[in-house]
Amino acid sequence: MATIPQDRQLKTALPGPASSALSARAQAAIPRANSATIPAYAAAADRGIIEDVDGNRLIDFASGIAVTSVGASAPAVVAAIQAQAQQFTHTSAMITPYEGYIAVAEKLNSLTPGDFPKKTSLFNSGAEAVENAIKVARTYTGRQAVVAFDHAFHGRTSLTMALTAKAVPYKLGFGPFSPEVYRMPASYPYRDGLSGAEAAARSIQAMEKQIGASQIAAVIIEPVQGEGGFIVPAPGFLPALQQWCNDNGVVFIADEIQSGIARTGTWFACEDEGVVPDLVTIAKGVAGGMPLSAVTGRAEMMDAPGPGALGGTYGGNPIACAAALATLEMIEQEHLLERARQIETLVVDQLSGMQAQDNRIGQIRGRGAMIALELVQPGTTEPNPELTAQVASRCREQGLILLTCGTYGNVIRLLPALTISDQLLTEGISIIEAALNETKETN
Ligand SMILES: *Cc1c(COP(=O)(O)O)cnc(C)c1O
């Protein structure tokens, strides 16, 4: 277990010499397409801090893209991994299954919204979960069309690239894309000014006119859009979509890969408006850093594909299952749903103070420990990707690991571990504030 002091410390300029040497090796050995946001190589990580190979301690506002919500070396998770590895690392759940898989399925069946019989199938990555949710929806409905939305991100495999909205860097040059995927307008209240009901009516009308309800197998949506810019849809949008799906025999899939597992202060972000999806895709935060993903949903839908039709060599790996059980238990025992809401209060409070002084902060939005700032040209709603890149880069130089996102590249997103200290949170945001202020002087 890593027990790194929970404070920021810069011993060298970033990247330091040991990281630079690794960067040189990486350049020769790894394609440029596998680029890294911050060329500081990790040596250890724990809660709010990543220590690099030069001994620098960086504040972590990324959690490995919303993965290490309980921390990157939580003692209970590490112990569960060690204990399972000593018994066996793999047998394949498709050959000689094991209890951990069932226990994870039972847990996810009970945690996901909906008071009806559910079943869960396990996979490795988020994209794989999305692909399999679509397979389930297509076999269950006997229909082919799948609806995704503007600003959506669902992964980088062939089908999920088709579902993903943004061309660069995810899609450009990688076509042809999977057929029978349709893109509809979403709800982006800051930019479209529509109420949830208006935005839903627009999407529903487009689905009916352009595809035909009877042709649609599934509608897939992120309840809070992640890569697209931490976009929280206007209230009423998701419930109206869900209702329309229910009325038309369309499978409603909530992609909770980024927004789920306590991140927004509830187990799943769709709970905020009482939305009950037919299928939920789960990954990222579910297993304390181990690769594990899941599709959880209505038993009759999950049972539509025949024996052997779902699965994979590694799906539901026993070590990943042990890590997931420890992670989910830790979220309960350490009250991390509540902690996510505390983080929201603390972060939004500090950011609101900054926004009052800075008309380049267009909007602060998000829920729980999934909060973003959308940066704009002063006093307008015009996206400001240059400022966003500048601020992120200054923060990284100061030892704050910070991610951007958004269709227009103008959103700074905060995804700290739920186990980060208040002090590191405050310090991290002060670094963002200082970076914004410095750019005021140069702009
Ligand atoms: C990250 C992400 C995915 C893809 O997950 P991978 O594990 O990278 O394949 C899918 N959907 C959403 C909402 C995501 O944030």
UniProtKB/TrEMBL annotation:
PROSITE patterns for the chain: AA_TRANSFER_CLASS_3
Named cofactor requirement(s): pyridoxal 5'-phosphate
CDD domains: OAT_like
Pathway membership, UniProt: Amino-acid degradation; 4-aminobutanoate degradation
GO molecular function, one term: identical protein binding
Enzyme category, top tier: transferase
Reactions this protein catalyses: (S)-3-amino-2-methylpropanoate + 2-oxoglutarate = 2-methyl-3-oxopropanoate + L-glutamate; 4-aminobutanoate + 2-oxoglutarate = succinate semialdehyde + L-glutamate
InterPro entries: 4NH2But_aminotransferase_bac, Aminotrans_3, Aminotrans_3_PPA_site, Class-III_PLP-dep_AT, PyrdxlP-dep_Trfase, PyrdxlP-dep_Trfase_major, PyrdxlP-dep_Trfase_small
Sorted UniProt keywords: Aminotransferase, Pyridoxal phosphate, Transferase
Listed transmembrane segments: none
GO biological process: gamma-aminobutyric acid metabolic process
EC number: 2.6.1.19, 2.6.1.22
NCBIfam families documented for this protein: GABAtrnsam, PRK06058.1
Family listed: Belongs to the class-III pyridoxal-phosphate-dependent aminotransferase family.
Protein name (record): (S)-3-amino-2-methylpropionate transaminase
Taxonomic lineage from the root: Bacteria, Bacillati, Actinomycetota, Actinomycetes, Actinomycetales
Gene: gabT
